[in-house]
Amino acid sequence: MAIKYYNPTTPGLRGMTTQDFDSLTAKRSKKSLLVIKKRGSGRNNQGRITTRHKGGGTKRFYRIISFKLPQDYEGTVMQIEYDPNRSARIALLRGKDNQYRYIIASNDLKIGQVIRSGLEDIAISNSNRMPLKVIPVGSIVHAVELEPNGGAKLVRSAGNSAQLMGKDNGYAQLRLPSGEIRLINENCFASVGVVGNEQHQNIKIGKAGRNRHKGIRPSVRGVVMNAVDHPHGGGDGGRHGVGGGKGHGTAPKTPWGQKTLGYKTRRRKVSNKLIVRTRHQSKRKK
């Protein structure tokens, strides 16, 4: 996917880039795989804001994605589509039973390509889905399950991939995009290849209104607030960092006084024993 640039005819277009949609093959989605998506604006079922800076945005339908294909499945790629709810592209498959399904589109996926899913006798080719125990060590995969038959949970965003590092005692060692190496049950399914739309990270928003269309509201820094409004606020005037100013604590905090910006919140997780090397350790070694 290429990046589309604009002439700076207006201040908003100066430096703004968008995606080139020439790789898409359809303008309309499959109606039977669309459901209405309600906008909660970051509120829970009691109407209280649980995620700040959300609201507004363009209306959109949710596409029902099949993160778990049936056993011995064979489907043909009918079209590649844009999904407003995720960074990756999606592909429409038609199976032998004439049932349609959406999957996350991998890189270089073509119209008419046949995609298979099963336990054995599946070729190690782009987008084919199979257990980790039959995938060769060193292969690049995406859409990985965390638990057998649990559906894809890992490596689903644009341009991401994981590498199979080894297998031992019923577990596969997978190096995730963050650098973390994690043990995953070798019976978990994964798709071969890299998630498409790899240029997504290079897109420049360009103007505030474009973020509002995405449902993202403005965010105000705590250091510019008054001391009564935020732990970072206050001071004797002038610019200052998080640690300076009157009434500031020694560590960065949320508006409610909880430590943040580097403060570790992961505590006593059962899955900690499955992490061979954390993403922080991998960054230090570099």
Could you explain the architecture of this structure?
The chain has about 290 residues and is mainly beta. The protein has 2 domains: about 5-200, OB fold (Dihydrolipoamide Acetyltransferase, E2P); about 220-285, Ribosomal protein L2, domain 3 (Irregular), CATH 4.10.950. Helix content is about 5%, strand content about 25%. It has 2 helices and 17 strands. The strands form 5 sheets. Strands 9-16-10-13-14-15-17 form a 7-stranded antiparallel beta sheet, with helices on one face. A 4-stranded antiparallel beta sheet has the order 7-6-5-8, with no helix packed on it. The longest helix is centred in the last third of the chain and has 7 residues, at about 280-285.
Any key phrases for this structure?
286 residues, mainly beta, OB fold (Dihydrolipoamide Acetyltransferase, E2P), Ribosomal protein L2, domain 3, 2 domains, seven-stranded antiparallel sheet, four-stranded antiparallel sheet, 2 helices, 17 strands, 5% helix, globular
Topology:
Blueprint: E1 3-5, E2 17-19, E3 34-36, E4 61-63, E5 73-81, E6 90-95, E7 100-104, E8 114-117, E9 129-131, E10 140-142, E11 144-145, E12 152-154, E13 162-168, E14 171-175, E15 181-185, E16 189-192, H1 208-213, E17 275-277, H2 279-285
What's the story with the biggest beta sheet? Answer: 7 strands, antiparallel
What value does the average pLDDT take? 90
The percentage helix is under 10%
- Morphology call: globular
Order of helices and strands: EEEEEEEEEEEEEEEEHEH
The first-to-last residue Cα distance is 29 Å
Question: Which architecture of the largest domain does the CATH hierarchy give at level 2?
Answer: Beta Barrel
Structural class: mainly beta
Q: What is the CATH top level name of the largest domain?
A: Mainly Beta
- How many distinct beta strands? 17
